[in-house]
Design goal:
It is built from four helices and nine strands. By secondary structure, the chain is α+β, with helices and mostly antiparallel strands. It has one domain: Gcn5-related N-acetyltransferase (GNAT) (Aminopeptidase), CATH 3.40.630. It has a seven-stranded mixed beta sheet with strand order 1-2-3-4-5-7-6, sandwiched between helices. Helix 3 links the parallel strand 4 and strand 5. The C terminus is likely disordered.
Amino acid sequence: MLLNPEPQTIRLNPTHALACLKLDARALNGLWTSDHWERELSDPQRICIGIAASAHTMLAMACGWVVLDELQITVLGVEPEQRRRGLGRTVLKQLLLDASSAGARHAILDVAEDNHGARTLYSAFGFQTVGRRDRYYRDGKDALIQSLEMQRKIKLNSINSALSW
């Protein structure tokens, strides 16, 4: 089930809660509960982006919320069998664009120190590690706090295409 080179993103809403919960279980080991997903997708202050394979199957998702001029990225997940195909890059790019339109000038997120795939993705966008949360995750792993200044040009991929915020 490979998508075209430029998969289409959709704005997620409460009707996508079950699909997000299922992807969360597969991609993030059940990070959030169904109640959490209902709240996330119902809150008009949240920006949630997805790529769906069907009405009931989500391939990738990213959510966050803008507080003043900062986007706080709360979750990004990609179907494990669909990783390394640009889906994470696509939803993250759309999330950053939507947040920028909503007034965000900075973005911040937490990423597991040992999640090299996610760290590579975030680095490609220009995120830099600015701190650490010891034993942040349920399994005792540390989280790195990463930040992005959205005002400058960032690299989107290895071909050096850039997006100016």
